[in-house]
Design goal:
The chain is an alpha/beta fold. 32% of the residues lie in helices and 24% in strands. The protein has one domain: Rossmann fold (3-Layer(aba) Sandwich), CATH 3.40.50. Strands 1, 3, 4, 5, 6, 7, 8, 9 and 11 form a nine-stranded mixed beta sheet that branches. The protein has a two-stranded antiparallel sheet with strand order 2-10.
């Protein structure tokens, strides 16, 4: 399934976002209306939907929603819903869902895992094993521990880590454009 509804515009927007924030995504500190850390991360979740390919069976129908889900504590508040409002990826409208346990995450395509204790994170990986879900978090060592994409704060910038082995296990294909922005940790 192709994920490029407006590739040039999307790539320009994504490149501009990364470029404006200095190669890594700089977390705003006192500047005029700068994006907050979770506005940046929410924008990344939206862009991930366009730079990842899911297998055909990951969607119930050709026009079924692409679900971006938040598991556990929600650091985004209304930001994520505002960023994805009226957005589409191919023929899929983007929807947001909030869950308290991984048992509810079956219909998710992108799952942001909020702050959790390490044993709970391992349990989530076990429950989602083999499912076509792009797992993302800013928990320490998330990608190294088995998640697909981790946000890492380094010197006031947000960096990406990608665990290619976890992506392959979930049968997800990550665009080389996205992989160039990330450190490979698996």
């Amino acid at each position: 399934m192709r994920r490029r509804s407006a590739p040039f515009t999307l790539l320009c927007a994504f490149a501009t976002l990364v470029g404006l924030l200095g190669g890594g995504l700089r977390i705003a500190a006192g500047a005029a209306p700068a994006a907050t850390e979770y506005e940046i991360k929410a924008a990344f979740l939206l862009h991930f939907s366009r730079f990842v390919e899911w297998p055909a069976g990951a969607f119930a129908a050709p026009n079924a929603p692409l679900f971006i889900c938040v598991l556990g504590d929600d650091p985004f508040g209304p930001i994520l819903e505002a960023i994805v409002r009226n957005e589409m990826v191919d023929s899929h409208p983007i929807a947001v869902a909030h869950h308290r346990s991984a048992d509810q995450a079956d219909r998710c395509h992108i799952l942001f895992v909020g702050r959790l204790a390490e044993p709970l994170e391992r349990q989530i990986f076990d429950q989602l094993h083999g499912k076509n879900i792009l797992t993302v978090s800013d928990n320490d060592e998330f990608a190294r521990s088995g998640g697909v994409i981790g946000f890492l704060a380094v010197n006031g910038k947000i960096k990406l880590q990608v665990n290619r082995a976890s992506a392959e296990q979930a049968q997800l294909r990550i665009s080389s454009k996205l992989l160039r922005l990330a450190d490979d940790v698996g």
